[in-house]
Amino acid sequence: MKRYSTIMSVLLTLALPVAGYCAEAPKGAEKADASAGAQKETTPKAGETTKDTTSKGGHSNMMGGNSKAAGGAEVNPTGKVVETMDGGGYTYANLEKDGKKTWVAFPTLETRVGETLSFKNCMEMPGFESKALKRKFDSILFCGSPEVKASAAKAKMAEGKKSPGSTGAASAAVGKIKVEKASGANAYTVAEIFEKRSALNGKQVAVKGQVVKVSTGIMNKNWIHLQDGSGSEAKKTNNLVVTTNDEPKVGSVVTVSGTLIKDKDFGSGYKYNAIIEKGSVKQ
Fold it and tell me: Which of 15, 96, 223, 256 has the least C-beta neighbours within 10 A?
């Protein structure tokens, strides 16, 4: 009798998991039906954009094909760069196409305003806040390295990747730039800085220009690119780099004061024919 009781206990123990599974199965089916019903209810009407990016397996479809990410942003974006900056190991670019702007982030790469870039298989991150840039984006797409549409832009990017310094060609500004020369005995245009860099080496100078690019948090400094309309893009004498703790906005006109250094080599390709160090930026 005791042996019979033991056998029944074992059988009952084995039966419990099966019974439990059978009891949960209808609930799973009900959830699936409910999910399907919810998807049916949220099917967008004509002209609307769906916000549902969840696949049957519960994973995001944002990486797939020509689908759209949450909020309607293209996961394969293409557009003209209208604003760009670096920070935290990423290059941030604002792409414009057909009047619509989309922010993308990708591994640091010399990028110019005016280039046309395209990306594949990007992932959207709504409400992303960059600590390096001290800026919050309502929506941004994180992508791999970009594809460049124009062959000329490809050449420029290759040149920029080869050397991010003076010979690497910094961002080109949108439209023609014409900024008046700063006032004072130590004031110079961008072109004059390059022309007189040997005589001015180690001296305090002041330059007024438009900010065409800002790269933050590199070597514990912010790097700004100034242009005033003087100099030659072909000769690399139209763009002056300044290291500073300040962070002006791209497009703003500022006056920078600091120490001019010629032939500065930071290593890792950061070499400059002329650069202003420990710059103080005033609007």
Answer: 15
How far lies 203's CA from each of 186, 267, 273, 276, in Å? Answer: 9, 23, 15, 10
What is the fold, at CATH topology level, of the domain defined by 165-282? OB fold (Dihydrolipoamide Acetyltransferase, E2P) (2.40.50)
Query: Can you tell me the distance from the alpha carbon of 261 to that of 281, in angstroms, rounded to the nearest whole number?
Result: 17
pLDDT band at 191 (very low <50, low <70, confident <90, very high): very high
Calpha distance 246→262 (Å, rounded):
22
Query: In the Cβ-directed half-sphere of 152, how many Cα atoms lie within 13 Å?
Result: 4
Q: Residues of the chain with pLDDT > 90: what percent?
A: 41
**Per-residue pLDDT at 165:** 55
* Whole-number pLDDT of residue 259: 96
* CA angle (161, 164, 169) in 5-degree steps: 90
Whether 181 contacts 205, CB under 8 Å? no
| E strand or H helix that includes residue 262 | strand 253-265
Token pair belonging to 88? 């935290």
Question: In angstroms, how far is CA 166 from the centroid of its own chain?
Answer: 22
CA distances from 28 to 4, 23, 34 (A): 37, 10, 10
Please count the CA atoms within 13 angstroms of the CA of 46 that sit on its side-chain side: 0
- Tell me the per-residue pLDDT of 245-260, one tens digit each, with 9 for 90 and over: 999 999 999 999 999 9
Q: Looking at the domain that runs over 70-154, which CATH code has it been given?
A: 2.40.50
pLDDT recorded at residue 181: 95
- Give the mean pLDDT of the chain: 73
pLDDT at residue number 174: 52
CA–CA distance, 234 with 40 (Å, rounded to integer): 59
